[in-house]
Amino acid sequence: MTTTAELIELSERRSAHNYHPLPIVIHEGRGAWVTDVEGRRYLDCLSGYSSLNFGHGNTKIIEAAREQLGRLTLTSRAFFHDQFAAFAAGLGDLTGKDMILPMNTGAEAVETAIKVARKWGYEVKGVTPDRANIVVMEDNFHGRTTTIVSFSTDPDAHDGYGPYTPGFRIVKYGSVEAIREAVDADTVAVLVEPIQGEAGVLVPPDGYLRQVRELCTENDILMIADEIQSGLGRTGDTFACDHEGVVPDVYVLGKALGGGVVPVSAIAADESVLGVIKPGQHGSTFGGNPLACAVACAVIDILNTGEYQARARELGGVLHERLRGMVGRGVVAVRGRGLWAGVDIDPSLGTGRDISEALLRRGVLAKDTHGSTIRLAPPIVVSEEDLLWAVDQLADAVRELGG
Ligand SMILES: *Cc1c(COP(=O)(O)O)cnc(C)c1O
To answer: What top-level branch of life does the organism fall under (predicted)?
Structure first.
């Protein structure tokens, strides 16, 4: 029999070490729980970085995938297929936008938003060719392509991959003044995460998103919200921007849009913006394929009920109240919104990795983001009882490390 240790050893020997996984080999997942190859069960508090908002093996999503798998999986966009219209219209309605442009991964959707913003800048705003700039935030995470890492401030993500793509201005997150200072007549977009996930679930000051919206409107600049991790129910609203009643010009979506089954990403915008893209000017072989569309339609149906948003809001209240009670007892600070929390552990107790490993030993899957910050983002289907149990395990893990 192949053991956990053997599978880990082979994985590490035969694949690049671009991740540092926790020592667990997962075999099965159902709802908020996974089972490893040795039959041990763990509560999943990472949810594939919020790709599994609706749980492992969600019946509605899996049934849609299974039905589509047996019929038609790929056509390319050279032809129409019968799942595409419902997906485009459904996602357009969910976002309140005229149009969508489908891709696969989150990074591709961000790239799409950047390309559309530049093209819009030249063709609609009238920016001088090749002079467009986009304002981005410190500590951003938008993916791993060469252009995207060009404006990352994380040395691990950025260093060693030059020459870098120009045209980005990096400013402090949470400060509308910093954006105001950076914009000029050639600014075509502000690209912002409504809540910075990878940076440690950083919630900007109240009113920030509204002020960014106003600044963009006043200066004829596109507000691009990267809702790849914050969107689709996680924060207790469909989009994290909803919390401030803000509607960006461009939504960037991914992760949970694929229901934890297939990569599905897209941007959504009005025709005045997305209309700049003409045949042949952008695309993807797999983007908007029948399987992806069928799965995403099931996700959109789920979101249209509002049940998951409400549940994330309710459980989020419970989660944050419990976590706040831990501040001062090995926990330095807690942030987040809805069923999404960044927990700063006292760094003297150990690294985020130490805490993640202590949680693993207690049957909870979570991962550190930066330094000693643990991200908690269980599938929204998690029961209140299991959620509170996970927080108890965190308290216990902190105690074990001396907190
Ligand atoms: C995960 C993520 C991305 C990149 O998505 P991939 O599918 O990994 O390419 C981009 N932006 C945000 C905010 C993310 O969380």
So the answer is: Bacteria
